[in-house]
Amino acid sequence: MVMKxxxxxxxxxxxxxxxxxxxxERGFACHALSMDYGQRHLVELNAARRVADAxxxxxxQIMPLALDSFGGSALTxxxxxxxxxxxxxxxxxxxxxxxxxxxSLALGWAEVLGARDIFIGVNAVDYxxxxxxxxxxxxxxxxxxKLATKAGxxxxxxxIHAPLIQLTKAEIIRKGVSLGVDYGLTISCYQAxxxxxxxxxxxxxxxxxxxxxxxxxxxxxxxxxx
Length: 226
Hints:
Blueprint: E1 5-9, H1 14-25, E2 29-36, H2 43-55, E3 59-64, H3 98-113, E4 117-119, H4 135-148, H5 150-153, E5 159-161, H6 169-178, H7 203-215
Helix pairs in contact: 1-2, 1-6, 6-7
């Protein structure tokens, strides 16, 4: 039996590692796509390599993409500080159009591969208020794929899978554990150091730590000593 191909966006974080495991569980031959987009550190790309190796992808592409040329986000502009307190509205860690760009590149690779399924680890429950993590955004992108690709014009349908979209962080962790994900390989911190140690205070670290606590799972994250 020939396995269906899928492109899985893999950041090296907890969510994307879980999504990769879910795609494998569903029987897809997974092609992982990571982005070197000018983020503050490359630790997450090293984590993506570890996760891809551990979960046995068919191929793993790391694509250079200089979103830091635009700036506009605390993740791509070192002059904008990473917040350590929750704030109202869309936070400064939002990277303008990031998921739109990432999905567009995943769509291009999927069309070349003959894949019609793309997996992304966005979440609309325990998330930071990013507009490109909402179900309506994913639905709109599926409609775009119908119009913007040769395959779509010829009647083929691309599906954007977001299996974590309505799960809490604790539910995501329990699902990953059930699938054998080693979360010690992942990093979620916005400002991890070169040794891969997390700060423990940024929004992403707080969400991750609370998720492990609520899931009743030991947190394998390596934190910097205060």
